[in-house]
């Protein structure tokens, strides 16, 4: 028996299938429909692929094989899967296309629904899909939105077959038909053929009744009920009347004579949703010449079973008009409904795409295995719920796309969009791999590399140097980010200036410390190799047009590497600021980016927040900070211990402002559950193979009492580059959740100004402004804007920390040399204070931390209790061209810092150690006593 579906074809209506699925096609389902039911086309949309790919394993083999061949973005991974289905469908329909001489036999694939409101990217996507599939019976589907219409016209003009989707109103349809005609006319004007350009205008039917019928039910009157289930059909019939009118016009006839194919109306959304209606309602009522009905499988089965064909589309047109008039009289607002349906349609396809891309992103990460750093989170229920809310908000607002598009509305709506150059840098686009490889070769002639820079210009490269180390035969890296005379001397003594490459690194090119350090080391180098030769051993890394660039040119530096002004210092590690020093110690930067890119692909605009490693972490950090868990406590495994110093700056400078933000806690040894309050999130960064069983036991204990623990695992230390990307994205996201601009640093500037004033006064007078200790003994002198009561050092220290309350943190700001013995003593001090007061502790060496965590201490939450530590340097170092020595500058920095901290309402006390050698030990002992009992 002939299939009833074939009778539709006889009536001039093409039967298409609104469904794609690999298993169905592999089993020959599509071919069978072509052969037995006269099927002549296939349509797909994001919801269809979401059902096919997101909920089945039929695509896993291909995805795994694709990823093994080459990693790629989520969107490309998805497209490869979808395109394979579309190509197969095109090939199955190809005999139909050939038999009907291009009049039918088409298969549609939709451009990304995220683009529905963007003309230019839609055009680009249409062209890309057309070229990739490269089959004449492909149709690219573009929404008929206002921004979609010009894209449709341009794509058609370029010779691409177009299925216009999401049409609900006759007005929108009219514009689309006009665009089709204009495109054909444009081709004729250019002398291009038009006979094989095909287009359908997909008019959605049942969705209209879905909304209108609800309104009718709400009215509840008999006259309203009389048009129930009729408005969508009437609307479609009148659209067809417009088609007929235009087809009869002279303008169309002129094109038809040149072989133009009609742009067929395609009835979409023809599955019956309301069980009260016939399951073939939206097929039987809309049968007419030169149309298409694309049906979901169930509707197709129903029609095959009991559908009746008649010339329905052109019958009862008067009735259709009456229904429309009645709808208007009843105030059903069809115009408003159809406009809203477009918005809802775009949104529902975007939602489907979120779920589809999410499924692909999750599988991609699973199949990448240990090529991508692992991530898991154990969160208490309340935080877990807040994180899920933040993720859902981010998804609904399209943050992963907004971030990459530079849309500042996800933050404060300020100038955030101008500071996103680091995204391209994460894809390796800021650096010139060949130039870096050449530098790496050149640097092999040196024994050491000394990097002079602060904050973002030194911390990232230092982390790379410490974790990855120099390649064999390449120089050793010394990052110098201090004015501490002891620290400067340590580096100066460790190197031979004649056998050293100096990298002076400053984005702004005007930061005081690298300027002074450059003056010092340039003079030493000149002394060693002769005036005029020193420049050849110096490299500058700076943003174009900076003062450092001018100085480097003047002094004949060997190279100047230029940064990107749209990247802030703390986000600059994957630009020249991190990569020049990395190259200098022999790291293969191009190879390094292979692993970095895997993470960059994972956090792209096409990775929805729930499946995006950067957003997952950022949502946790942001939601936790908002809930008062604002002390992000890093627990690194031994090899990864240096990472925190880079991370501290990123988190603190980005989020710590307007009294809000995250206070990073690095290098505080893990304690027992009783040592912590409710203000922490622990992030365990683990390199497989690193031994830390004692810490694991402690983390398990913390987990057991409901402390939030995030675990990040690296299979190889070379994968540390992925963490730069993950944390940069996460920080930007956390900033959005917290509600601040993560790219400015408003409070660091104040300490710099304060310091400059002190130094300028010194340059004039030869001494720093006098200051008076409020208490002094043989070991210490204490300074504070408000003296702390107490008869001796222990009592003063005790009184200072006695103000601690839950949620506060103690900060130890040490303007002394950063070396092992000092680090160990500071660690001891931190543990004593933490265990005594149950508060988080942070520590920084000055002036290094000023360009890093200093922002959060000044601008972030006002719950810090700071102890600043200064000392009398045993040996000071003069700076060429300056009256002030390094020791004086450092002291001025400490004083400026203290003043600004105090002015921001933080509790501050400065202890000046009289004896450089024994002073810190004496302080640790005093604090031990002060924190006992
Ligand atoms: O690279 P530059 O311009 O010398 O800045 C160094 C550091 O100083 C800061 O501006 C803070 O003082 C950081 O943001 C930056 O990373």
UniProtKB/TrEMBL annotation:
Record carries keyword Transferase: yes
Pfam families (UniProt xref): PGI, TAL_FSA
CDD domains in alphabetical order: SIS_PGI_1, Transaldolase_like
Entry keyword set: Cytoplasm, Gluconeogenesis, Glycolysis, Isomerase, Pentose shunt, Schiff base, Transferase
Active site (catalytic residues): 141 (schiff-base intermediate with substrate)
Domain of life: Bacteria
Molecular function GO labels: glucose-6-phosphate isomerase activity; transaldolase activity
Pathway noted in the entry: Carbohydrate degradation; glycolysis; D-glyceraldehyde 3-phosphate and glycerone phosphate from D-glucose: step 2/4; Carbohydrate degradation; pentose phosphate pathway; D-glyceraldehyde 3-phosphate and beta-D-fructose 6-phosphate from D-ribose 5-phosphate and D-xylulose 5-phosphate (non-oxidative stage): step 2/3
Keyword flag DNA repair: no
Location in or out of the cell: Cytoplasm
Catalytic reaction list: alpha-D-glucose 6-phosphate = beta-D-fructose 6-phosphate; D-sedoheptulose 7-phosphate + D-glyceraldehyde 3-phosphate = D-erythrose 4-phosphate + beta-D-fructose 6-phosphate
Predominant place of localization: cytoplasm
Enzyme class: transferase
Membrane-traversing stretches: none
EC number: 2.2.1.2
Function: Transaldolase is important for the balance of metabolites in the pentose-phosphate pathway.
NCBIfam families: PRK03343.1, PRK09533.1, tal_mycobact
Family: Belongs to the transaldolase family. Type 2 subfamily. Belongs to the GPI family.
Protein name (record): Transaldolase
Species of the source: Sphingomonas abietis
Gene: tal
């Amino acid at each position: 028996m002939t299939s009833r579906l074939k009778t539709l074809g006889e009536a001039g209506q093409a039967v298409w299938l609104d469904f794609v699925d690999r298993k169905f096609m592999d089993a020959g389902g599509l071919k069978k429909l072509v052969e037995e039911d006269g099927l002549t086309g296939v349509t797909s949309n994001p919801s269809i692929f979401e059902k096919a790919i997101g909920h089945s394993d039929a695509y896993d083999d291909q995805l795994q094989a694709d990823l093994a061949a080459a990693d790629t973005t989520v969107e490309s991974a998805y497209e490869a899967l979808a395109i394979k289905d579309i190509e197969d469908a095109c090939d199955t329909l190809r005999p139909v296309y050939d038999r009907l001489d291009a009049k039918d036999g088409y298969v549609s694939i939709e451009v990304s629904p995220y683009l529905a409101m963007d003309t230019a990217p839609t055009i680009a996507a249409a062209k890309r899909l057309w070229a990739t599939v490269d089959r004449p019976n492909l149709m690219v589907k573009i929404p008929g939105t206002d921004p979609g219409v010009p894209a449709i016209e341009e794509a058609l003009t370029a010779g691409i077959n177009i299925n216009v989707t999401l049409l609900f109103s006759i007005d929108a349809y009219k514009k689309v038909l006009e665009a089709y005609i204009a495109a054909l006319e444009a081709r004729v004007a250019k002398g291009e053929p038009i006979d094989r350009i095909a287009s359908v205008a997909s008019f959605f039917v049942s969705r209209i009744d879905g909304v209108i019928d609800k309104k009718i039910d709400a009215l509840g009157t008999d006259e309203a009920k009389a048009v129930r289930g009729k408005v969508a059909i009437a609307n479609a019939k009148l659209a067809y009347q417009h088609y007929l009118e235009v087809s009869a016009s002279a303008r169309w006839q002129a094109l038809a004579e040149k072989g133009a194919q009609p742009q067929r109306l395609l009835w979409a959304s023809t599955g019956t949703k309301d069980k009260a209606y016939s399951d073939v309602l939206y097929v039987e009522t809309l049968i007419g010449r030169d149309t298409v009905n694309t049906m979901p499988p169930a509707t197709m089965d129903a029609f095959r079973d009991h559908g009746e064909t008649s010339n329905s589309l052109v019958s009862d047109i008067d009735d259709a008009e009456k229904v429309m008039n009645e709808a208007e009289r009843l105030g059903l607002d069809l115009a408003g409904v159809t406009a809203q349906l477009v918005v809802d349609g775009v949104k529902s396809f975007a939602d489907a795409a979120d779920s589809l891309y999410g499924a692909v992103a999750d599988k991609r990460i699973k199949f990448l295995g240990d090529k991508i750093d692992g991530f898991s989170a154990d969160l208490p229920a309340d935080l877990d719920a807040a994180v899920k809310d933040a993720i859902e908000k981010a998804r609904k607002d399209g943050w992963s796309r907004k971030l990459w598009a530079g849309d500042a509305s996800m933050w404060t709506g300020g100038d955030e969009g101008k500071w996103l150059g680091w995204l391209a840098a994460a894809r390796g686009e800021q650096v010139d791999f060949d130039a870096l490889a050449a530098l790496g070769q050149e640097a092999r002639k040196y024994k050491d590399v000394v990097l002079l820079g602060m904050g973002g210009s030194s911390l990232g490269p230092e982390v790379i140097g410490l974790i990855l180390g120099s390649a064999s035969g390449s120089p050793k890296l010394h990052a110098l980010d201090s004015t501490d005379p002891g620290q400067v001397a340590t580096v100066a003594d460790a190197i031979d200036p004649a056998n050293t490459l100096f990298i002076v690194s400053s984005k702004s090119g005007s930061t005081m410390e690298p300027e002074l350090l450059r003056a010092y080391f340039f003079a030493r180098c000149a002394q060693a190799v002769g005036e005029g030769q020193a420049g050849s051993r110096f490299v500058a890394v700076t943003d174009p047009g900076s003062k450092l660039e001018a100085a480097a040119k003047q002094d004949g530096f060997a190279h100047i590497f230029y940064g990107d002004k749209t990247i802030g210092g703390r986000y600059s590690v994957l630009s020249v600021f991190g990569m020049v020093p990395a190259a200098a110690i022999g790291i293969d930067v191009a190879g390094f980016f292979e692993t970095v890119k895997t993470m960059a692909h994972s956090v792209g605009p096409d990775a929805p927040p729930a499946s995006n490693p950067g957003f997952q972490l950022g949502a946790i950090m942001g939601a936790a900070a908002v809930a008062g868990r604002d002390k992000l406590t890093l627990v690194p495994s031994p090899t990864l211990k240096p990472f925190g110093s880079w991370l501290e700056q990123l988190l603190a400078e980005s989020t710590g402002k307007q009294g809000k933000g995250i206070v990073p806690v690095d290098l505080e040894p893990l304690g027992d559950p009783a040592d912590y309050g409710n203000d922490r999130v622990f992030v365990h960064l683990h390199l497989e193979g690193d031994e830390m069983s004692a810490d694991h036991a402690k983390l398990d204990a913390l987990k057991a009492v409901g402390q939030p623990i995030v675990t990040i695992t690296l299979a190889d230390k070379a994968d540390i580059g992925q963490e730069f990307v993950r944390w940069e994205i996460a920080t930007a996201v956390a900033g959005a959740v917290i509600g601040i601009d993560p790219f400015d640093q408003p409070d660091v500037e104040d300490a710099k100004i304060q310091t400059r004033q002190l130094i300028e006064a010194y340059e004039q007078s030869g001494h720093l402004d006098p200051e008076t200790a409020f208490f002094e003994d043989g070991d210490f002198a204490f300074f504070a804007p408000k003296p702390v009561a107490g008869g001796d050092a222990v009592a003063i220290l005790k009184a200072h920390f006695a103000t601690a309350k839950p949620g506060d943190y103690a900060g130890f700001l040490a303007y002394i040399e950063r070396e092992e013995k000092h680090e160990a003593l500071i660690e001891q001090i931190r543990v004593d204070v933490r265990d005594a007061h149950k508060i988080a502790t942070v520590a920084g060496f000055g002036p290094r931390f000023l360009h890093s965590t200093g922002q959060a201490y000044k601008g972030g939450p006002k719950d810090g209790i700071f102890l600043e530590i200064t000392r009398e340097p045993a040996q000071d170092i003069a700076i060429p061209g300056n009256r002030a020595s390094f020791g004086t500058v450092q002291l001025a920095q400490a004083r400026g810092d203290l003043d600004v901290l105090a002015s921001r309402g933080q509790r501050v006390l400065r202890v000046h150690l009289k004896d450089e050698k024994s002073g810190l030990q004496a302080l640790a002992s005093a604090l031990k006593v002060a924190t006992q009992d």
